[in-house]
């Protein structure tokens, strides 16, 4: 697999792991990196990233947040053993008493590093563009932070 596809797979795996409620697996994507948000701060390594999602994201009886993360407009630039990427995200949620809707949109700004065992996130910055009804998704109120 070429570098572009490996990096794209990491970006898409992130969305899949959130939707599956696998916050440990999600944290593992950042075992060599960090997540930075303007709203909640900076989280370095597997444990901090997993902990951030566990403490901020609601999970239902099936263990998932009942969301569907869509990542689009992916642009990847590879520079030898490092790479950068930007992409858009839209998160949808629908429950029995909550009509299907987009609940948040934004942009990911990612950096990657090539190690002996493949590409890894070195950082992910999340910029929020639009906030809808997050009351069924998050355990915190982003508008109060």
Structure description:
With 145 residues, this protein is of the alpha+beta class. It has a single domain, classed as Nuclear Transport Factor 2, Chain: A, CATH 3.10.450.50. The protein is built from three helices and six strands. Strands 2-1-6-5-4-3 form a six-stranded mixed beta sheet, with helices on one face. The protein starts with a helix and ends in a 14-residue tail after the last strand.
Poorly predicted regions are none
- Provide the number of structural domains: 1
The helix count comes to 3
Q: Which CATH class? A: Alpha Beta
Molecular shape: globular
Task: Provide a concise account of the structure shown.
By secondary structure, this protein is an alpha+beta fold.
What order do the helices and strands come in, and which of them pair?
Layout: H1 3-20, H2 23-28, E1 34-37, E2 41-44, H3 45-56, E3 67-79, E4 82-95, E5 98-115, E6 118-131
Parallel strand pairs: 1-6
Antiparallel strand pairs: 1-2, 3-4, 4-5, 5-6
Please name the defining characteristics of this protein.
145 residues; alpha+beta; Nuclear Transport Factor 2, Chain: A; 6-stranded mixed β-sheet; 3 helices; 6 strands; 25% helix
């Amino acid at each position: 697999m070429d570098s572009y596809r490996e990096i794209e797979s990491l970006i898409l795996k992130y969305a899949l792991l959130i939707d599956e409620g696998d916050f440990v697996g999600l944290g593992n994507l950042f075992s060599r990196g960090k997540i930075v948000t303007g709203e909640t701060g900076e989280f370095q390594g597997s444990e901090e990233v997993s902990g951030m999602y566990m403490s901020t994201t609601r999970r239902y009886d099936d263990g998932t947040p009942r969301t569907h993360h869509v990542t689009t407009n992916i642009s990847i630039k590879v520079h030898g053993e490092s790479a950068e990427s930007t992409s858009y995200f839209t998160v949808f949620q629908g429950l029995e008493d909550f009509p299907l809707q987009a609940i948040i949109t934004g942009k990911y700004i990612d950096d990657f590093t090539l190690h002996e065992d493949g590409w890894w996130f070195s950082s992910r910055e999340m910029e929020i563009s639009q906030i809808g009804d997050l009351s069924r998704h998050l355990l915190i109120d982003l508008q109060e932070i």
